[in-house]
Design brief:
It is built from nine helices and ten strands. The protein has about 250 residues and is an alpha/beta fold. It has a domain of about 140 residues: Rossmann fold (3-Layer(aba) Sandwich), CATH 3.40.50. The longest helix is centred in the C-terminal third of the chain and has 21 residues. It binds adenosine-5'-diphosphate and magnesium ion (MG).
Length: about 250
């Protein structure tokens, strides 16, 4: 593999306004080292998706800039940028009239890598090669998201952006997929940014947790630091949710 790890990302004074009133993203500056698994956490409407989309230019900042390995994302054509970035969201939208193999191959074709074996890509996301001939409607929700991830990574990019990508899944499937993605991140040496409203998921999967509130990053901590009480009120309010649930479960255990 060419690079030892995925690319570095930097936000430099990034603000996004959609109209009058408070900006959706408000002056975010931070650097993410290559190879980091970052979770971006916050309540609904806090600006997570908007900030994430400034990386692949689905959102253009009103002010500030975003760089990947020091290069402004605005520098070249958007399609070339997006080929290097795997982007997976809640309803990934596989083409329903195409097989699993054809769906993954779409990712390869746009990258001019039509020779790369689809089976190897399915194996990366822990799907058996036998699924290659199935239609998306014949897969479970978790399998569909795995195909989406295989397609997103097919062009060979080392940056993976996940926006509530597990949102529609049951808790067991969600947990398994989260672990698979963390393993994939480590195996391929990716830089991963996982947007989630679930602090437990963030604490269990990420190296670094960013907490967003009203367009700003209000906490930037390791899971260990958050679990030991650091990060401030907004972060601790989110940490309290799974902790209280675990405590209540313990109390009810006979
Ligand atoms: P999150 O992903 O944390 O739930 P979003 O980034 O989607 O939050 O939204 C942040 C804020 O920006 C919200 O108030 C939302 O209504 C607003 N917003 C997001 N996208 C648009 C858009 N395309 N047009 C207008 N307002 C938007
Ligand atoms: Mg969102």
């Amino acid at each position: 593999m060419a690079d030892p790890q995925g690319p570095a990302i930097a936000f430099d004074g990034v603000t996004k306004r959609f109209g009058e009133g408070a900006p959706a993203v408000d002056g975010v500056s931070l650097a993410i080292a290559g190879g980091t698994f970052v979770a971006l956490v916050g309540t609904s409407g806090s600006g997570k998706s908007t900030l994430l989309k400034t990386i692949n230019r689905l959102v253009v900042p009103s002010a500030g800039r975003v760089t990947i390995d020091g290069v402004d994302v605005a520098a070249g054509p958007a399609p070339a940028l997006r080929r290097r970035i795997g982007y997976v969201f809640q309803e990934i939208g596989l083409f329903p009239h195409m097989t699993v193999a054809e769906n993954v191959a779409i990712g390869l074709r746009i990258a001019g890598r039509a020779d790369a074996p689809v089976e190897a890509l399915l194996e990366q996301v822990e799907l058996p090669p036998a699924l290659a001939g199935r239609m998306p409607g014949q897969l479970s929700g978790g399998q569909r998201q795995r195909v989406g991830i295989a397609r997103a990574l097919a062009p060979g990019g080392r940056l993976l952006l996940l926006d509530e990508a597990f949102g529609a899944l049951d808790p067991v499937t969600r947990d398994a997929l989260g672990r698979s993605i963390r393993a994939l991140h480590d195996r391929l040496g990716l830089t991963t940014i996982l947007v989630t409203h679930d602090m437990a998921e963030a604490l269990l999967l990420a190296d670094r947790v960013l907490v967003m509130k009203a367009g700003r990053i209000v906490a930037d901590e390791t899971p260990a630091a958050l679990l030991s009480g650091r990060g401030g009120d907004a972060a601790q309010a989110l940490v309290a949710v799974p902790r209280d649930q675990a405590e209540r479960l313990r109390e009810r255990t006979p």
